[in-house]
């Protein structure tokens, strides 16, 4: 896949080495061939989404790139080096990212900095800045139980950002939120990613969300998942929801839907 254009667009680094390079990656769980083989390149500062039917292997791919599981076959390079274990600058955000219930919002965000040995004053200052960025200003001293699900997910996002990530791996991060909060969070994420310029691998079931956020959308076929289409999203940035009405956005959504429709139908029938 040609990611040169996106790699050059990236602001996080002067080098054009992609942040992620995956070659021939496969996963098997006993007799279950869960994934691949897949190849994938993510440029620096590039936002890539993966959509595909339930159970096709999307989370498996993300977990392999996050070093949460080893692939059965293939190679993964992050930031130009073979992946040997979890990386400090890879931030992972899940649907139900855990917050620490006994810590306030600001102390939850400061936690990753604390683990890295950053001094108390510096980490609190940085955490307050991030809390502000994700729109939780005024809630610094609240505890997770006093927040809505959407607000807790913002805490998780701020904590991920506190790690100064060059790569964010997000697995349905807004999947548990209501539609309205989800839309607001997607715009928030856009703003954050456009500010820090890191690479993103984003897994979603929402074609609309994928088109709104991404430079490219990869469509995965049913299990064992391989990429069956790559849809570039040629829309200017910064973006907001209004861009979804543009012809380039509707064309991209229709193309993606046409690709996954058959896959999803077959996958659904085989689950029955
Ligand atoms: N640890 C495991 N042991 C056995 N099978 C697994 C394991 N993890 C995943 N699988 C199987 O591998 C396949 C791919 O799973 P994965 O979670 O990656 O799919 P997905 O595309 O993320 O699904 P969804 O969209 O429903 O979240 C599924 O059939 C799943 O049941």
Automatic annotation (TrEMBL):
<dbReference type="InterPro" id="IPR050166">
    <property type="entry name" value="ABC_transporter_ATP-bind"/>
</dbReference>
<keyword id="KW-0813">Transport</keyword>
<feature type="domain" description="ABC transporter">
    <location>
        <begin position="20"/>
        <end position="247"/>
    </location>
</feature>
<dbReference type="GO" id="GO:0005524">
    <property type="term" value="F:ATP binding"/>
</dbReference>
<dbReference type="InterPro" id="IPR003593">
    <property type="entry name" value="AAA+_ATPase"/>
</dbReference>
<keyword id="KW-0067">ATP-binding</keyword>
<dbReference type="Pfam" id="PF00005">
    <property type="entry name" value="ABC_tran"/>
</dbReference>
<dbReference type="InterPro" id="IPR003439">
    <property type="entry name" value="ABC_transporter-like_ATP-bd"/>
</dbReference>
<dbReference type="InterPro" id="IPR027417">
    <property type="entry name" value="P-loop_NTPase"/>
</dbReference>
<keyword id="KW-0547">Nucleotide-binding</keyword>
<protein>
    <submittedName>
        <fullName>ABC transporter ATP-binding protein</fullName>
    </submittedName>
</protein>
<dbReference type="InterPro" id="IPR017871">
    <property type="entry name" value="ABC_transporter-like_CS"/>
</dbReference>
């Amino acid at each position: 896949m040609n990611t040169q254009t996106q790699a050059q667009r990236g602001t996080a680094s002067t080098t054009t080495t992609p942040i992620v390079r995956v070659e021939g990656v496969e996963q098997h769980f006993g007799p279950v061939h869960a994934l691949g083989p897949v190849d994938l390149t993510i440029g620096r500062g590039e936002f890539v989404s993966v959509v595909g039917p339930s159970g096709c292997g999307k989370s498996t791919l993300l977990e392999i790139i996050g070093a949460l599981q080893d692939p059965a076959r293939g190679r993964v390079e992050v930031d130009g080096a073979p992946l040997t274990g979890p990386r400090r600058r890879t931030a992972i955000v899940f649907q139900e990212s855990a917050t620490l219930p006994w810590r306030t919002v600001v102390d939850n965000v400061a936690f990753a900095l604390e683990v890295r040995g950053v001094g108390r004053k510096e980490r609190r200052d940085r955490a307050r800045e991030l809390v502000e960025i994700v729109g939780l200003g005024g809630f610094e001293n609240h505890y997770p139980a006093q927040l809505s699900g959407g607000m807790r997910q913002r805490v998780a996002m701020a904590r991920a950002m506190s790690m100064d990530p060059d790569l964010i791996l997000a697995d349905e991060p807004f999947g548990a939120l209501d539609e309205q909060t989800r839309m607001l969070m997607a715009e928030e994420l856009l703003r954050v990613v456009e500010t820090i310029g890191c690479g993103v691998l984003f897994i979603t079931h929402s074609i609309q969300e994928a088109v709104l956020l991404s430079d490219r959308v990869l469509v995965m076929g049913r299990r064992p998942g391989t990429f069956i289409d790559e849809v570039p999203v040629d829309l200017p940035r910064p973006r907001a929801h209004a861009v979804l009405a543009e012809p380039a956005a509707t064309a991209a959504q229709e193309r993606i839907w046409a690709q996954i429709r058959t896959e999803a139908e077959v996958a659904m029938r085989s689950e029955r």
